[in-house]
Recover the amino acids of this structure.
């Protein structure tokens, strides 16, 4: 069942995930399209998330946005200061300005970066974990994740463990999607695009997620007729035979990456699975470290030791 509607307000609206927003166009959603979409969202009782461009949006769009409860996802370089101050989630597409940014406990933050650049910024991430309550790191080059990066990614994640333990011990329960989510989750918590969320793009059509729009995939409906996803079962965990028995609960299970890497929205590529398992295994080490510092911490949670990084390698035919 669809619960969330994501609306990039223009073709250069910030990306909050793995995809890159379309370059070379700043076309903004039409006010009438937006109005119709929000009426539909209200009827369907959906939570609406708006994605903004750096230059902000005009008064007419602002007025319509304010007619509905919503979440604002705003780029860190937004030139509309009020919009940036009021953001629920702030997105960094570059490391420039991170050190001097005024982080606040009531905002969540996303950093979009390539794996190699991330690995080289461990000190910066350690410092950030002391300043924020919620940080999501989104790797933008998952398809390029190769065996040469495995150790570096593992070491990077494990290097954050002492900082997180220190923060938790002092009462600051900082959340980092790559490490703490797996500890807190008791079941799969994936992106669920096409199943729980849909996107209304600036062209006035529905898409599985913003990535499918920016990548040129066909729309899955119009604001006139409503969304119409063919074979909706393929977007569900119940129809993803490997994922549904996996315990990398924090994995995004990105259907756009699946489409890119295997041409099937419900079949993951090796890169996504290996990254998610390195994160899962580092989360296991974090849990052990937290229990040493705080006996009894999350005593119900068990993360088993496993010997594989890709569940497909484990399948016996
Ligand atoms: S790690 Fe692989 S098998 Fe597990 S949920 Fe993610 S994509 Fe699915």
């Amino acid at each position: 069942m669809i619960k969330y509607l994501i609306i990039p307000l223009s073709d250069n609206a910030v990306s909050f995930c793995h995809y890159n927003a379309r370059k070379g166009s700043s076309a903004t959603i039409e006010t009438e399209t937006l109005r119709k979409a929000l009426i539909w969202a209200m009827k369907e009782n959906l939570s609406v998330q708006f994605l903004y461009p750096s230059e902000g949006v005009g008064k007419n769009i602002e007025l319509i946005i304010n007619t509905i409860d919503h979440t604002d996802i705003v780029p860190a370089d937004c030139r509309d200061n009020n919009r940036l101050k009021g953001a629920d989630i702030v997105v960094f597409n570059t490391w420039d300005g991170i050190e001097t940014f005024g982080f606040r406990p009531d905002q969540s933050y996303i950093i979009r970066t390539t794996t190699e650049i991330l690995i080289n910024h461990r000190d910066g991430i350690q410092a950030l974990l002391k300043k924020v309550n919620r940080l999501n790191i989104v790797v933008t080059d998952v398809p390029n994740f190769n065996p040469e990066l495995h150790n570096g990614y593992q070491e990077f994640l494990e290097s954050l463990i002492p900082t997180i333990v220190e923060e938790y011990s002092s009462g600051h329960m900082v959340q980092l999607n790559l490490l703490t989510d797996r500890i807190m989750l008791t079941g799969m918590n994936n992106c669920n695009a096409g199943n729980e969320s849909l996107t209304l793009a600036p062209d006035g059509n529905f898409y599985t997620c913003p990535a499918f729009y920016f990548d040129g995939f066909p729309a899955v409906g119009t604001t006139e007729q409503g969304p119409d996803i063919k074979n909706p079962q393929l977007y569900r965990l119940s129809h993803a035979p490997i994922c549904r028995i996996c315990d990398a609960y924090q994995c995004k299970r990105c259907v756009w990456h699946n489409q890119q890497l295997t041409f099937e929205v419900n079949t993951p590529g090796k890169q996504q699975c290996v990254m998610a398992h390195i994160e899962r295994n580092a989360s296991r080490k974090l849990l052990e470290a937290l229990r040493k510092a705080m006996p009894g911490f999350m005593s119900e949670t068990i993360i088993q030791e496993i010997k594989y990084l890709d569940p497909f390698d484990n399948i016996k035919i």
Q: What stands out?
A: The first helix runs from residue 31 to 43. The radius of gyration is 20 Å. The mean pLDDT is 95. The chain is about 30% helix and 15% strand.
